[in-house]
Design a protein that fits this description.
Length: 384
Amino acid sequence: MIKIFKITLLISITLLFVNNSAFSSQEKIKIGLLVPMTGENKHLGQLLIKSTQMALEDVGSDKLEIYPRDTASNPSKTLKSAIELKEMNIKIVIGPIFYKNLEYLNELQDITFLSLTNKTLNLPKNVISTGVNATSQLNTIKKFIETNEIKRTILLTPKIDYEIEIKKALKESNIKISKHYIYDIEPTKLTAQIEKITNYKIRKQNLADEIKRVEESDLIDKEKQLEKLEKKYTIGKVNFDSIIISDFSESLKSVITSLLYTDVSPKNKYIITFNQWFDESLIKEKAIQPINYPSISNKNFNNFKKKFFKKFKEDPNHLSLLSYDLVGLIYFLSLNNEITDMNKLFKKKNSFKGKIGIFDIKDNKIYHRLNFYQIENEKLKKIF
């Protein structure tokens, strides 16, 4: 039976931690933090430093110490900073953020890195992927599909750098997909591909043929039927009930717009996407709604943002919330375990509840139990 560890960082839980006699005799826990402190991503790094600082204050224990070091968003610099942390006898590190910065970290096998990447392929053995990965998202989408008894689902994935990651997640989630299409994000090519996927030209020709047939007929209600046909764009069904689009931002909007052009409406077919992190611009795009997607707890995220803004006078991002929770996770796991055994703990089946939601820890990976949301009529609604 999987044991569920609950962390809320409320005062009552904090007091429980501080009063834990088994922990009070231990040495201080040194946590490394690998984030960009220079270069184009330095603002992101500053947000994560602030979020871990806030987590330390909320835990309320002087047993934790965090040591930030710069990655400069560069693999070589990341290794150099990680070696500095090793020389300080640090065994657990939050970060780095980006997948590319994991390249040389397998050289430091006695340190466990809790990377914020959502990629899970070809990770060094000492790196735990803590981001909201594709498997977590497809597991939640699968629940939505089964709940709504959707029979035929297709998946659209852009031809960029995470095709293999998506294919692996499909296998792990065991979600039923009728067909998986890889599309080109270049607008002209995208439109042509969507036309093919939706049988647009055939359906368009069906309409033209039907109009011609009615025009040449002796039907009593001929004018009435022609009036109805002129309001249509196509005739004929598409071979799917829902579409999962593993894309984001403007590229996602381009795909949905292309579907609208081919007479496939979100009002008639389920349009499901990957985690959009509550992108406000999608709420304003009424023409492409309803849109459905998995994500973390919106309520918890909003509460975190309010608290963060009150303290630092700036808005956090979702990685800030994740790094905040990772401090709590490390603290909790260390209560009854040696920090040197942390890597072993991530190979066991455990669960942990934080602000971002529930993490399931298994085989050096963290999977997230996500909520599911729908945007319709310019409003965000929680489905489950």
